[in-house]
Every structure is written in structure tokens, then in C-alpha cells.
Design a protein that fits this description.
The chain is mainly α. Helix content is 47%, strand content 10%. It has a domain of 178 residues: Arc Repressor Mutant, subunit A, CATH 1.10.10.350. The termini are far apart. It binds glutamic acid.
Length: 499
């Protein structure tokens, strides 16, 4: 198909959530797969509920996910004049009419219909009214004149359900096009914008299925060609209820803050309702290559945090440590200083990355290194029966560290901003770790002990935790002085409990 154009049209009344991000992703990759264009339109005509910060969040989150519009972002609030001209056209052609019914009157009519067990709809009081100028100065809305010819129906073919959905016009209200404050409603503005910007495929949540016939009526009334429609099923929480804050994070920015990588989220979201054989791992390029609407599931998708974590650890593992450090520093955190982008931090990040499911977890695992002081918790120390032998071991271990050749710790002045610099750094790192490992094994055999016997003591001394990165990496990263300081402090702590 030629000239395919899709759009994502969020209202900036909240942060970009998972459901919206998935809709945007589907729209984006559908356009890209077909060599078409994707645009972003901010539907900000609800002035009371729209907020600048949400607008910014939506744009930033999409960018973070690499869902990049091909044209300048459109803001509906800039287009009020345009809507006005089309409303005038509809009024002139008698396809729309003014309605002066008060809220109270509408409410009364509504209650009557409900009492009679009928569908509450606008009863059409103003349908045939020809208001004069004086009346037009009083509060009013503008309604669409739905074709009431007996048996008239409006329908469309849904590309995901692969079925024709048709609604009897009797079921559709003479819906409001322009509110009392002169601002167009969603159903009106959306049609004008989609038509004028040449949108060929509208991919959106299935909560809009009931709006689509109204929009088709407008396309017909205005003489526009209607686009194709694809309504995507909802995302449910693991309890089968609609995904909401109760199920944990729902906004994209929250996932970012919690240490998820955009690749993981994109990969997760695309699989939430779309499949390509049994494959699970997809880069954006692969998604674009394989994406097709017909492989989107018709049923609701269940959100599964475990799977998202699994994908996230997959992508964390595949990153080089310098990139990981930058990503960790990218997570806004007012309480912690950024990590240093140096070879030592990289050594630890690299050795820890396979054990972290999120960047935040990785960052926490690096705390022992970032914090100058270690707190040896009594409840951890008391789990071990430290005695004279351990004190003796620590003394000789201290000597071993003090005696290590300073060259091992010397990383030189490597420029880590370019690829070669990073590669050199990683090479130095590998060699240093190898030297420490050899020296350490010598030390162990001289002292007639094994790594297995001593690992916990060393780990506790250096990190205060029972789980830590590999010991060689820690020694390299902390350097002689900090290692010795920690051994001394640990020595004192266990001496206190063994005394
Ligand atoms: N502003 C609407 C929403 O956020 C857009 C729906 C549509 O895609 O047509 O739900």
C-alpha cells in the first residue's frame, strides 16, 4: 500500500501509560513496516484536564522508546480556527444544528427514558429549531444531525477483529460537536485532523470502538474518505482486571525510574498482543521488519511483570558496562551522586550485570563501592562463628593486599569517551583481574586454604553483604587503600564479637 500514514493521538491528561505506549508502538511500526509515516498529535482541547507536564512526559517517553514522529507534532489547541470552518460548513448544509437545552432539561429527559426502560439519548428537542440571532447569543452546543432514515446503519471493517462492525443509527445520539465554551469535542476534532493530515490507518484502543461509527458519519457528512480502523484489545492485570496503578507501575516514566531499558519495554509491549512465530526477542528493526496487523491478538493481553523483568535482564546483560553506567546515571535520583564513568566502576558493573534485573538493582549492588563507609550489621555477622582463625586469616590477607604490585591498579589515563578508549579500558581490566586472580590463588595455596572457605569472610569484609561481585573485581575496583581500610574495620568488628 502506498502513502500509509498512522498517528498516535493522546490527550495530555495523564502520563504516558503502558497501554498508550503500546498503541503508539503498534501505529509506529505499522507505518514503518509499510514505508509510511507516523505522526503525533496532542489532543489538548480539554483545557481543564490537559497539562503541560503531561504533554512533555508523553513526548519524552515516546522519544525514550524510540517512537519518533516523522513530522512536527500537532497540537489541537492551535487548530481551533480550522475546526470552526468545518463546523460552519456542517451548519450551512444542515448536517449540524444548535441545541439550547439546559443541563437540567437534558437530565430530566434522560431520567424519563430510563424510567421507561429506554436507552437514554438526546430526544431531539432542538433538531428542527431555526434559532434567531437573539437565541444564538444564549448558551448552546452544536450537535450532529444523525441520519434517522428508518433502517439506516453505519459500519466499518475492523482490521484486527477482521470483521464488519455495524451499528443501527437509532443507537447513536445526535452527538455534540462543539461544546458550550465553543471548543470542539473529541469526535469532531479527531475526524478533521485525521482527514486533513492524510491518516490512512487509525490504530487505537478498543475503548474507542463505539466512537468509530460516529466518526464515520462525520467523514461522510464532510465528504472525506474514511481511513481504515484497527482497534487493539485492552491490557489486563494478572487478576484479569483492567491494568491500573493497583498492578504496580503503569506509566512509562515509572518504568524508566525503576531501571527498565527502553529496548526491554518495547520488546515487551510488542509481544503484548502481537506474535511472530514463537520468537520472544525482537529489536525495533526486527519488529518493523515482521510487524503485521493480522498477527495482533483479538483477545485482551495479560500483563506479566516477570516476563518484563526477564527481558530487561536480557538487555542489561547485553550492554557494555560504560553504557550501563550512563544509563544508571540517566535515572533521575536526587539522593545519590552519579556514578563515576571509570574503568573501576565499569569492572564492577560488568561483573554484576548478569545478576541484576533492573538498572536500579544494579545500582544498589554497586552501593558498597560508591559508599565510603561500610556498615557491618550485627545480624549478618552473628550468623557466622568468627574466631581466632579468621582474625589470623584477615591479618595475612591484609598483608597480601598491601603487597600487591601497584601496577595492577594503574589504569592510566584512558579516554573513555570513544570506542577505542573503552575497548582499551576493558582490555586493561581483563589483564588486571587476571593478575589479581593469579596472585590471590598463590596466596591461598601458601596459606593452605581455598577460595570456597574464605570467600564469605572476604566478601563480608569488603561489602558487608553475603552476596557480592566476584572478589577479584572488588579488589581491583576498591584499590589497595580502600581494601585495607575495610579489612581493618571488619577485623575490629569481628574482634568485638569474638572477644
Ligand atoms: N485523544 C484520544 C485518546 O487519548 C485519541 C483516541 C484516538 O486515537 O482516536 O483516547
Amino acid at each position: 500500500m502506498n502513502n500509509i500514514k498512522t498517528r498516535f493521538a493522546p490527550s495530555p491528561t495523564g502520563f504516558l501509560h503502558i497501554g498508550g505506549a503500546r498503541t503508539a508502538l503498534f501505529s509506529y511500526v505499522y507505518a514503518k513496516h509499510n514505508g509510511g509515516k507516523f505522526v503525533l498529535r496532542i489532543e489538548d482541547t480539554d483545557f481543564e484536564r490537559s497539562e503541560k507536564r503531561f504533554e512533555e512526559d508523553i513526548m519524552e517517553s515516546l522519544k525514550w522508546l524510540s517512537i519518533i514522529p516523522d513530522e512536527e507534532v500537532i497540537f489541537q489547541s492551535d487548530r481551533l480556527e480550522i475546526y470552526r470552518s468545518y463546523i460552519d460548513k456542517l451548519l450551512k448544509e444542515d448536517k449540524a444544528y444548535y441545541c439550547f437545552c439546559s443541563k437540567e432539561l437534558l437530565e430530566e429527559d434522560r431520567n424519563k427514558l430510563i424510567a421507561e426502560n429506554r436507552k437514554p439519548m438526546y430526544v431531539g428537542r432542538c433538531r428542527e429549531l431555526k434559532p434567531g440571532e437573539a437565541l444564538l447569543k444564549t448558551p448552546h452546543v452544536i450537535r450532529f444531525r444523525v441520519d434517522r432514515t428508518s433502517g439506516a446503519a453505519t459500519g466499518f471493517k475492523d482490521l484486527i477483529r477482521n470483521q464488519h462492525i455495524s451499528v443501527n443509527n437509532d443507537e447513536i445520539d445526535d452527538f455534540v460537536l462543539v461544546r458550550e465554551d465553543g471548543i470542539p469535542t473529541y469526535n469532531f476534532a479527531v475526524v478533521i485532523d485525521d482527514a486533513l493530515t492524510g491518516i490512512t490507518h487509525i490504530i487505537r484502543g478498543d475503548d474507542h470502538v463505539s466512537n468509530t461509527p460516529k466518526q464515520i458519519m462525520l467523514y461522510n457528512a464532510l465528504g472525506f474518505d474514511a481511513p481504515e480502523f484497527a482497534h487493539v484489545s485492552m491490557i489486563l492485570g494478572s487478576d484479569g482486571k483492567r491494568l491500573s496503578k493497583r498492578h504496580g507501575a503503569t506509566s512509562v516514566n515509572q518504568y524508566k525510574k525503576e531501571g527498565f531499558l527502553p529496548e526491554a519495554l518495547v520488546n515487551y509491549l510488542i509481544r503484548l498482543g502481537w506474535s511472530h512465530g514463537n520468537d520472544e526477542i525482537f529489536s525495533m528493526d526486527e519488529i518493523i521488519k515482521y510487524f503485521d496487523l493480522k498477527n495482533i491478538s483479538k483477545s485482551a493481553a495479560i500483563f506479566n511483570t516477570e516476563k518484563l523483568l526477564w527481558l530487561n535482564s536480557h538487555y542489561i546483560k547485553s550492554k557494555d558496562p560504560f553504557v550501563l553506567i550512563n544509563l544508571i546515571n540517566d535515572i533521575k535520583d536526587d539522593f545519590q551522586p552519579p556514578l563515576n564513568i571509570d574503568i573501576k566502576t565499569a569492572a564492577l558493573a560488568d561483573s554484576l550485570k548478569s545478576r541484576a534485573k533492573t538498572l536500579v538493582e544494579l545500582k544498589q549492588k554497586l552501593d558498597f563501592f560508591v559508599n565510603e563507609d561500610i556498615d557491618y550489621k550485627d545480624e549478618i555477622l552473628s550468623e557466622f562463628n568468627f574466631g581466632e582463625n579468621d582474625l589470623k586469616f584477615l591479618k595475612s590477607f591484609r598483608e597480601f593486599i598491601a603487597g600487591l604490585n601497584d601496577e595492577i591498579f594503574n589504569c592510566g589515563n584512558i579516554d573513555l569517551t570513544d570506542k577505542t578508549g573503552k575497548e582499551n579500558a576493558l582490555e586493561i581490566l581483563k589483564n588486571s583481574i587476571e593478575s589479581i586472580k593469579n596472585e590471590f590463588n598463590d596466596f591461598l595455596s601458601k596459606n593452605n586454604c581455598t577460595m570456597k572457605e574464605k570467600a564469605m569472610t572476604i566478601r563480608l569484609a569488603f561489602t558487608g553483604e553475603k552476596v557480592s561481585p566476584p572478589i577479584y573485581e572488588i579488589i581491583f575496583a576498591l584499590g589497595k587503600e580502600r581494601c585495607i581500610k575495610r579489612i581493618d574495620k571488619f577485623y575490629d568488628s569481628i574482634q568485638n564479637i569474638t572477644a
